[in-house]
Design a protein that fits this description.
Elements lengths: L7 H27 L5 H8 L3 H7 L3 H20 L8 H26 L5 H7 L1 H16 L9 H20 L8 H13 L6 H6 L1
Helix pairs in contact: 1-2, 1-4, 1-5, 2-3, 4-5, 5-7, 5-8, 5-9, 7-8, 8-9
């Protein structure tokens, strides 16, 4: 005799919990992107659930912030996956930076919210895939003679990250217009990666 069907109630509860988690995470991403000081109560109201429901899934505000950051990076990765990185590495990097800049404003504010709540190691882990994409592109450009090879690859990738974060901070501080972000970061990074030119006297001797 076949076993009776299991009680569907646990499955319904799990489905309800998953929907609540998704709704809370999305609300946290939106609220914290607008205000890194947004409270759990703010997130609960935006998600249409009670504060205790939020705490039932995320034991601390730090856990909620981490989930929001991870969700923002996951959504960003879906966009970055579509960027064409073939062909000339410098042009490919320009396309990647343009797409990255559109995603940076949100994630940079979330990073501010994560400060003190999410460890630096965890932040690096969450950024691992975007960093690997930049590393692979810069490495290809170095091998093809398009990007400089006199500085370590890891340092160049870190410098690109610093430029992007610095530009985002300039925008938040009102010293750089949001519409300038992509062009300023692209010009800075391309200049940073350009192979150093030989001194004039040396060029003449060679």
């Amino acid at each position: 005799m076949a076993d009776p069907d299991p009680d569907p109630a646990p499955r319904r509860r799990r489905a309800d919990a998953e929907r609540n988690i998704a709704r809370i995470t999305e609300a946290a991403r939106i609220c914290l992107s607008a205000d890194p000081e947004a409270s759990v109560e703010d997130v609960a109201a935006a998600a249409g659930v009670g504060r205790m429901t939020v705490y039932g899934h995320f034991r601390t505000r730090g856990a909620l912030v981490e989930a929001a950051l991870a969700e923002a990076l996951r959504l960003g990765e879906q966009t970055l996956e579509t960027v064409d990185l073939t062909g000339d590495p410098a042009r490919a990097l320009t396309r990647l930076l343009a797409s990255s800049w559109r995603l940076l404003a949100e994630s940079s504010i979330l990073l501010a919210a994560a400060d003190g709540h999410v460890s630096a190691a965890r932040v690096r882990e969450l950024h691992a895939t975007p960093a690997e994409r930049v590393t692979a592109l810069v490495d290809r450009g170095r091998r093809e003679g398009v990007f400089r090879t006199d500085l370590p690859l890891t340092w160049l990738v870190s410098a690109i990250h610093y430029v992007l974060q610095g530009a985002a901070e300039e925008v938040r501080a009102g010293r750089l217009a949001p519409t300038q972000g992509a062009s300023v970061t692209t010009a800075t990074v391309q200049s940073l990666l350009a192979p150093p030119r030989l001194p004039t006297a040396r060029r003449k001797r060679t």
